[in-house]
Design a protein that fits this description.
With 79 residues, the protein is mostly helical. It is built from 2 helices and no strands.
Amino acid sequence: MRDLVNANGVANGPMMHSGGIKTLGTVIAHYAAGIVNNANLDGKLKPNGRIVQQLNLQAGESATIIAFIKTLSEKNGYT
């Protein structure tokens, strides 16, 4: 998760395997909505045959997660 944002606090996107998501907020919303079932989904993500994997975030938690991720960015490069 290091350096997901640049020194100005802007996301180094696009994100995800397809490059289809441009902001950290949208990534978090994607996972908060839950996993969508498809033929390639690992069975470990479907306990008891049901899909229950969601973040279940409370109000404001998305902003808190984004603030934390921004702390993982190196401002002066690696030494």
